[in-house]
Design brief:
Layout (H helix, E strand, L loop, with lengths): L13 H5 L2 H15 L30 H17 L9 H19 L15 H27 L10 H10 L1 H4 L19 H14 L9 H12 L21 H13 L7 H11 L4 H12 L5 H9 L6 H20 L1 H28 L15 H17 L9 E2 L2 E2 H4 L2 H4 L2 H12 L14 H6 L11 H13 L6 H7 L6 H4 L22 H4 L26 H10 L17 H13 L12 H5 L6 H11 L8 H6 L5 H10 L6 H19 L6 H25 L3 H19 L3
Antiparallel strand pairs: 1-2
InterPro entries: Haem_Oase-like_multi-hlx
Keywords: Membrane, Transmembrane, Transmembrane helix
Organism: Sclerotinia trifoliorum
């Protein structure tokens, strides 16, 4: 289908202008423009629209706004590269800059109405935050009840006109659904300060459930991918380079922006943990879009399970909403106890910044990705400036609509004359759509530059609409247009009270034992130790291989060698599940279950644990058992992994493991083989008397789960001769290093 053309008719005669046509059109044009104020500041779906006024885009080219198209292409490229980060580590500075820009952009909009939303909770208290979040949930429930009443009264579907539009909507939303869980993908690493690991563990449980707790059929991305195979089998996997190709016509900027935000927010988990927790707290709220989609897809006889799953799993009692809230409350209370009230309030500002980012991109996506206009379920106008602009046009519309206008000019999805229809213009939805389309019409508005915008020129001296607006009204319009531009990144730093740090500076001289992500220079094949190991005496294709005997039972290990290995080796498989699109296979599912065991999570059951995991008596993970080892030997407990490695005379291999783990795709066989070697160390430690009886029993439970998962992984590797060989080389390498402990 052909794209929308929004250029104003060049043949408009001066006569028509003299009759007042332009005065009227411009006035209303601006009215709608301001009303439609982009729920996010991005171009809506493009496409050719019918008399039914469907706003669903299907065209491949966005002709309305070259700036938006350029930005969307940038978002697409980063979307691909961040899901393949080990191949593109050079994008980290750009990604951090963009994340801070998004914080600033969304904060700028939210601060226009500082008494609304989460900003109304100016000072943190447990009761205030709980009341606010439950209030947000209740508001959604009330909107849902109103929706049901409209439907029961005979009103039509509000998201889709028909089955084909619903299928197209499902496809257009694939980019954001294929990164489901990514906003938590990089948290809870071995480099996380130990005092924060309870908080990150609680939050990682949400990620685990998004990924199905290691059961493929429950993995959210897998479920949506299977849905896409019903809708459009030609659509490739979300982490593939082909996925961002224009031929797939995935051209909704709001979807790409929302998807990229999820990939960006967790990329720097040590620096932005409060923001991640805030993002998670909003993202896990139940939304009208999810509930409407579930109901209407079912009515259209389409698979709606993905959406019903989110309605149930995100519940505010025992589901992800409750878990996200509890993680925030525990975290701030811990900061208050350890650092004081001022630090807790500062952390709260950062949580607000993350919450607002999620709220802004999610509202934008839901508002502009429906197949037909829907009742406005979010606050509009979204800030004081929009309200002032709308007031101006309300006053002028009452007189302007009577002036006849023959213009065929297009503004976004409708002609100018259609926008000026008096009966339709009273609708808030109509106003919002007009404001959005005008904001994205390059012919009229240059975002961030009112001095370059045709709209302002036409309202100024010698312009065709000079005199139609007062000086004060023009200034309001200028302020509005300027506010549409890229915000000053300093907004984020000012709001959270942090000292601004450039990405170049922030990402220099990082320590792989304390920071994340950190990429060392990619080793060549000849430099990688695994390739210097001669092939084992067994053939690579040999299925049966008897590992070496366990380590000596008649000697105690050298703790200075053992402890760095013990505290570091849980890193080996952590990053394999950081990208949700790469977890839709049996190997990744088994690895997730193994990681759950190593981190001290309960064994998987048929029903998700939800809040039960947060409420249960904490089970020790490998790092907890490492701390027990240190206590039982009279050693001071470390605060982080870096402390352990600094106190060691030889931590070279520990650093190598951290480096290899950052490239899980390239090094998967190696990492799994190393893990197998360390499981054998676990067996030795469990029977050595180095742990308490309860600690040893906990470790034995972990071992049983690890072995089951590794057996599955090894079976999956047997079809890949190279990786199968690397598995056993990794195992041999791990055994060699561990034996140095004795």
């Amino acid at each position: 289908m052909e794209g929308l053309h929004v250029a104003v008719n060049a043949d408009i005669s001066m006569d028509a202008l003299l009759r007042g046509f332009f005065a009227v059109c411009s006035v209303i044009l601006i009215i709608s423009l301001l009303r439609m104020r982009l729920m996010t500041a991005s171009l809506p779906f493009e496409g050719k629209f019918t008399k039914a006024k469907s706003s669903f885009p299907v065209s491949e080219k966005i002709q309305d706004n070259a700036q938006v198209e350029e930005q969307m292409q940038l978002h697409k490229e980063l979307y691909f590269k961040l899901q393949n980060l080990e191949d593109y580590p050079e994008v980290l500075p750009q990604s951090r800059d963009l994340l801070i820009s998004l914080f600033s952009e969304t904060l700028t909009g939210a601060l226009q109405s500082p008494r609304h939303g989460i900003l109304a909770v100016e000072h943190y208290s447990r009761d205030a935050v709980t009341k606010f979040l439950l209030g947000e949930h209740d508001n959604t429930v009330q909107l849902w009840e109103q929706y049901l009443k409209r439907r029961e009264a005979g009103q039509p579907l509000e998201m889709f006109r028909n089955r084909e539009e619903a299928k197209l909507w499902l496809k257009q939303n694939a980019p954001v659904k294929y990164v489901d869980g990514a906003w938590l993908g990089h948290i809870h690493k071995v480099t996380t300060p130990f005092a924060l690991r309870r908080t990150t563990k609680d939050t990682w449980q949400v990620l685990s459930e998004e990924l199905g707790d290691g059961e493929l059929d429950k993995n959210h991305v897998y479920i949506y991918r299977e849905l896409m195979r019903e809708i459009d089998p030609s659509l490739p996997d979300g982490d593939s380079p082909d996925f961002i190709h224009p031929r797939h016509q995935l051209n909704n900027p709001n979807v790409w922006k929302a998807a990229l935000s999820q990939l960006l927010i967790s990329l720097f988990p040590h620096e932005f943990l409060p923001e991640i927790l805030g993002f998670n707290m909003h993202f896990e709220l139940l939304t009208m879009g999810t509930m409407k989609a579930a109901k209407e897809l079912e009515e259209l006889k389409l698979n709606s399970y993905y959406f019903y799953l989110h309605i149930s799993i995100d519940n505010a009692d025992s589901g992800h909403t409750a878990m996200a809230l509890e993680s925030v409350l525990r975290y701030v209370e811990e900061i208050r106890a350890s650092e004081g009230e001022a630090a807790a309030q500062k952390i709260w500002k950062r949580i607000q910044a993350g919450y607002i980012l999620s709220e802004s991109v999610l509202n934008a996506n839901e508002s502009h990705s429906h197949a037909r206009p829907v009742t406005v379920d979010v606050m509009f106008p979204s800030n004081k400036r929009e309200g002032e602009v709308l007031d101006i046009f309300k006053a002028k519309a009452s007189v302007a609509h009577k002036i006849h206008c023959n213009s065929k000019a297009m503004i976004g999805r409708r002609s100018l004359i259609d926008w000026l229809e008096p009966g339709a213009f009273v609708s808030k939805q109509w106003q919002m759509e007009f404001l959005n389309d005008l904001a994205n019409s390059k012919r009229w508005v240059w975002k961030g530059h009112s001095n370059k915008s045709s709209l302002i020129r036409e309202l100024s001296w010698k312009g065709k609409m000079f005199g139609a607006f007062t000086q004060k009204e023009v200034e309001v319009l200028k302020d509005w247009i300027d506010s549409l531009g890229t915000p000053d990144s300093a907004m984020y730093w000012r709001f959270v009270g942090r000292e601004a740090t450039s990405s170049t500076q922030a990402l220099q001289n990082l320590d792989i034992a304390a920071d994340y992500p950190v990429f060392s220079q990619q080793p060549t094949a000849s430099a990688n130790p695994i390739y210097s190991i001669p092939s084992p005496v067994f053939a690579l294709a040999t299925v049966q291989f008897a590992p070496k005997a366990l380590f000596p039972t008649d000697s105690q290990p050298h703790l200075s060698v053992l402890l760095p290995l013990w505290f570091t080796h849980p890193c080996l498989l952590e990053t394999t599940i950081a990208t949700p699109a790469k977890t839709t296979n049996a190997t990744s599912a088994a690895i997730l279950r193994l990681l759950r065991a190593q981190s001290g999570f309960s064994a998987e059951t048929a029903i998700v644990a939800g809040m039960d995991e947060l409420r249960c008596t904490e089970q020790p993970g490998l790092l907890d058992l490492g701390q027990e080892l240190m206590r039982r030997h009279g050693l001071p407990e470390p605060k982080c992994l870096k402390d352990v490695l600094q106190d060691s005379t030889d931590a070279e291999f520990a650093h190598s493991m951290l480096s290899w783990a950052m490239r899980p795709v390239a090094n998967l066989g190696l990492l799994l083989g190393l893990t197998k070697a360390f499981v054998e160390l676990h067996v030795w430690v469990a029977g050595s008397g180095m742990l308490s009886e309860s600690g040893a029993q906990a470790l034995r439970t972990i071992i049983a789960r690890e072995e089951d998962c590794l057996n599955i992984c090894l079976k999956e590797l047997m079809g890949d001769e190279i990786r199968h060989g690397e598995f056993w080389k990794g195992y041999a390498l791990g055994r060699t290093e561990i034996e140095k402990c004795f």
